[in-house]
Design goal:
312 residues; mainly alpha; 81% helix; transmembrane; Na/Pi-cotransporter
């Protein structure tokens, strides 16, 4: 039983994370060298910062990577903390693009995409090699999802697993905690969401539990940024904790309304995977757009919570 679950989970997660790395590397080679310049130059207003955070997260395929990059630029004095609030709000929306793509259920294209990507990577010119990495990365992601879904069958037969998630269905707090811890351990909210989609497609989880796990994943993704802020200046720590506080506050505010969020997503599509993707998008868009007009106030609050040493 353990082997039937652990083997597909381990291989599937490895394929998924390797695909994310390959795709991120391809995008970075295409535009990553300009990313720091974009973050430093085009963050003059909260709206500009928001779009920079959104586009950067789409290119780097990781909100944590953009937040860590932002922490580095803040520590170097290239941008001020107030400019980073809009970037953080944008990263939360940008990360939903990957989730929406994953929800399209393109597993049947996994091997062809992987083969095409490898073939392009073997070409001598730089541009097709970079594009090949991106295509192969997508192929590995879908291959990983397909592999992880193999574990759903044995899990359905497990009395222990059924009891655990039956308890989770009665306590969305347990789902929130599960999503937070698992994402903090594997450093990928997209992977957590993909696993949740796989379990939902086999009707192992309730929609409310699945959405609680996804909200927890949003909190868990802040763990990398908090670690990156250790040993940095106050402004960099403010960036990390702003990201954390915003995601925690958003998750806690939405937690009582998971049933309503599930109803809205069910109205948009019949597919459980698409419902999860749409719910995450709705959650992140609403939270980010609601907070965008108050970036100065948010920055002031975070400065009060994480003050400069000079002020203490």
């Amino acid at each position: 039983m353990i082997g039937a679950v652990l083997a597909p989970f381990t291989f599937g997660l490895s394929f998924f994370l390797l695909g994310m790395y390959a795709m991120r590397t391809g995008f970075q080679n295409l535009a990553g060298k300009r990313m720091a310049d974009w973050l430093a130059r085009f963050t003059r207003t909260p709206v500009h910062s928001f779009w920079v955070g959104l586009l950067s997260t789409f290119v780097l395929q990781s909100s944590s990577a953009v937040t860590v990059l932002t922490i580095g630029l803040t520590h170097a004095g290239m941008i001020g903390f107030a400019q980073t609030v809009g970037i953080i709000l944008g990263t939360n929306v940008g990360t939903t693009v990957t989730t929406e793509l994953i929800a399209l259920r393109l597993e049947s294209f996994a091997v062809p995409m992987l083969l095409v990507g490898v073939a392009m990577w073997l070409l001598p010119r730089r541009l097709p090699r970079c594009i090949g990495l991106v295509v192969a990365g997508f192929g590995l992601i879908f291959l990983g999802i397909d592999t992880m879904q193999v574990m759903a069958g044995p899990l359905q037969q497990s009395d222990t697993f059924r009891a655990l998630f039956l308890e989770s269905s009665h306590s969305i707090w347990l789902g929130l905690l599960t999503g937070t811890i698992f994402t903090a351990l594997i450093h990928s909210s997209s992977a957590t969401t993909a696993i949740t989609m796989g379990l939902m497609s086999h009707h192992i989880l309730s929609m409310e539990t699945a959405l609680a796990i996804v909200l927890g994943a949003n909190i868990g993704t802040c763990f990398t940024a908090v670690i990156a802020s250790f040993g940095t200046n106050a402004a960099s720590r403010q960036v990390a904790w702003c990201h954390t506080l915003f995601n925690v506050a958003g998750a806690l505010l939405f937690l009582p309304f998971l049933s309503q969020l599930a109803l809205v997503s069910a109205f948009l599509t019949d597919s459980p995977s698409m419902q999860i993707a749409h719910s995450q998008t709705i959650f992140n868009v609403i939270c980010s757009l609601a907070a965008l007009p108050f970036t100065r106030q948010i920055a002031a609050f975070v400065r009060w919570m994480v003050p400069d040493k000079k002020r203490t």
